[in-house]
Amino acid sequence: MDVVSTDQDRSAAAASVQEVTEGVFAYVQPDGSWWINNCGFLDGGDHTVLIDTCSTEARTRALLAASTGTTGSTVTKVINTHHHGDHTHGNYLASDAVVIGHRKTREAMLDAGLDTYEGLFSGSDWGHLELRPPEIVFDDRLTVYAGGHTIELIHPGHAAHTTNDVLVWLPEQRVLFSGDLVFNGGSPFALMGSVAGSRAALDVIRELEPRVIVPGHGPVCDLSQLDPLDAYLAFVQRLAEQGKESGRTPLELAREADLGEFAGWGELERLPANLHRAYAELDGAEWGAEIDLVAASVDMVTYNGGPVRCFN
User: Element (H or E) spanning 232, and its range?
Assistant: First the structure.
């Protein structure tokens, strides 16, 4: 199942800096697969605000060099969109910055530590990592200012990709850094959050009416990317209902599923994990409730035919 192209440059050097509006930059890392995330940064005049860091030491050092090289100023604030390591492992390297995130982001990072999910992925080169959770936390909303930029940090109000997702919204420019509430080209991943909640979070984004969306993974996009994501999540819900009725396990169901329009997406091994979450919700679990993550991860590896190839 794990069929990937090996000729694309996925190194840290392949990342591009894209100015999406004046003084606001997307840092896009191809190909956006596991652990290869997007970040962003804003020019605050005498300082720089960074949105997320990267999974490895080398990638975060490249991000910091690109951001300070573009703005000419030091990073003084880092905003985390959620707790996953591909967005937070490099926090410690922004040594002159304060880290801002959701209260549950801090809690999840302290609880999990530097989790690299050994056994699930292969080919990783992490470099030196140090745990650094947010020092400034909030629950619902927080406004940050950077020069002429107003940055609204918005928790969707429920679990979605995780329990602690944060939308980074620039209302004046109508630019949204979505974190992993939006994937472009890869399958959504709701194992640590909620399938239904992920769909509801897309409605939160629709209400903002962004002009530009910088997704957590994949190319910069706009609102048109939300409908395919919603369709996939609805597909997972329908599939789970069928599987529950027939008594099939999430893995059995995923192996038999006709992916149809989603067959060309990346990270197809996320399907059994998403089904684990959808099954739990059909059983009445609250959005974001704890479920057996190990069992779901084992099913991903089994579905994939071995550990998932990682290019970080």
Answer: helix 226-246
